[in-house]
Each structure stands twice: as structure tokens, then as C-alpha cells.
Design brief:
Blueprint: H1 2-89
Length: about 90
């Protein structure tokens, strides 16, 4: 009888231990899935920053070209104004 009681207590202990291990495994699995989502979001964020940096560099070059054209237009307008003033004096 005592032997059966000890076996029952041992079995209950084993079942409790298995239940705890199962719960901890589920928690670890859930944390792992959450970690994978965080990693995916991190990769998406890095790719977005990379594209933003590349577009910034391209836009900076375009803006520099626009400023050069603007300076050239001011210079040409100045020359046209000088020629117009000479024509008006005649």
C-alpha cells in the first residue's frame, strides 16, 4: 500500500514537472515568435533607412544642379539686362 502511495506521489510529481516544462516551452516558443517579428521589423526599418539615405544623396545632387542652373540663369539675365540697357540708350 505504501509502495502504491509513493508511486502515485511520484507520478503526480512527474505530471506536475511535465506540465511546468510544457508551459515554459510554450512561453519560450511565444517569445521566439515575438523575437522573429522584432527581427523582421528591424530588417524592414534598416532597408527603409537605406532607401531614405540613397534618395537623400540623389536629391542632394539634383538640388546642387538646380542651384547651378539658377546661378547661370541669373548671370544670363544680367547679361540680357546689360544688352537691353545698351539698346535703350541708343
Amino acid at each position: 500500500m505504501l509502495e502504491i502511495l509513493i508511486n502515485d506521489v511520484f507520478l503526480v510529481g512527474m505530471m506536475a514537472e511535465n506540465a511546468i516544462i510544457d508551459v515554459s516551452a510554450e512561453v519560450l516558443r511565444a517569445l521566439g515568435e515575438f523575437g522573429i517579428w522584432l527581427q523582421t521589423l528591424g530588417i524592414i526599418f534598416l532597408v527603409w533607412i537605406l532607401f531614405a539615405f540613397i534618395s537623400f544623396l540623389m536629391n542632394r545632387r539634383r538640388i546642387a544642379e538646380v542651384y547651378k542652373i539658377k546661378e547661370d540663369m541669373k548671370r544670363i539675365e544680367g547679361k540680357i539686362d546689360k544688352i537691353r540697357n545698351k539698346i535703350d540708350r541708343m
